[in-house]
Design a protein that fits this description.
Layout lengths: L23 E9 L7 H10 L2 E9 L7 H4 L3 E4 L13 E12 L4 E8 L2 H22 L3 E2 L4 E6 L7 E12 L5 E5 L11 E7 L7 E2 L1 E7 L8 E3 L10
Parallel strand pairs: 9-13
Antiparallel strand pairs: 1-2, 2-5, 3-4, 4-5, 6-11, 7-8, 7-10, 8-9, 10-12
Length: 239
């Protein structure tokens, strides 16, 4: 079916017009049997030889990858940390295979990629474990108040990873289950879908030492998205 008329990039339906976005990985799991690769030969090889494959599930913005058809045309670069990542072979590329879930209203979706590179899969699992530990250390013990810090990790214009800092400007009610963050953190085209980390006061003002809740979400620059910067549009990245 593709993108509905009037939706962002809907005018490019049926074309191979490339565009860039960002994402963050949620989980990496090992599987056996038939692999969901678009390459049928690879599927047969997995099933007949009992080869293992790994699913890499990630979150991005719905307007970056809209449906499974787009996911199957998507290349996901990981470990694109700086300008030398490509030349030194550090950066690896995964194949997108399926959109697992989509929230049109919040402009977010979960996408599955696959790889047969066990070393890469194990390395990604280690990164996730380190990230989860770091999140725990932010929450425990309480931190001295430093303001309502908000950062975005993304790949603006399809370039190497960038981290931009700002502050949470407001928290609005989005629906019965979710809030919307408005923040001053700068972004560029290509930042949509990137990881948003925001520190939010759990206790309230009036104390020097506070316990902070870490909000983790997807960056959406469009007005209908769950989280956006204060200008409601993508603006120049400040370095």
């Amino acid at each position: 079916m593709g993108r509905p008329k009037g939706y962002i990039f809907s005018s490019s339906r049926g074309s191979s017009t490339p565009h860039y976005g960002s994402a963050y990985i949620n989980s990496v799991e090992k599987h056996s049997g038939s692999c969901p690769c678009c390459d049928c030969h690879q599927k047969m090889q997995c099933a007949s030889l009992g080869m293992s494959w790994w699913s890499v599930d990630l979150t991005t913005a719905c307007h970056v990858i809209f449906d499974t058809q787009e996911a199957q045309c998507t290349a996901v670069d990981v470990f694109y940390d700086d300008e030398t990542s490509k030349s030194c072979g550090r950066m690896k590329t995964l194949k997108g295979v399926e959109v697992l879930a989509r929230n049109f209203e919040a402009d977010s979706c979960k996408v599955r990629c696959v790889t047969h590179n066990e070393h890469l899969a194990l390395e990604l699992q280690q990164v996730i474990s380190k990230y989860n530990y770091k999140v725990w250390t932010v929450r425990n013990p309480p931190l001295r108040a430093v303001g309502r810090l908000c950062l975005i990790v993304s790949h603006p214009h399809g370039q190497a990873k960038k981290v931009t800092l700002g502050k949470v400007e407001a928290v609005q009610k989005f629906n019965s289950a979710k809030n919307r963050l408005i923040y001053s953190t700068d972004s560029c085209p290509g930042s949509s879908g990137g990881l948003v980390l925001a520190l939010q006061d759990d206790i309230g003002p009036g104390t020097e030492w506070l316990t902070w809740a870490l909000w983790t979400s997807v960056h959406c620059s469009k007005a209908q998205g769950l989280n956006r910067n204060r200008s409601n549009c993508e603006i120049q990245l400040l370095t």
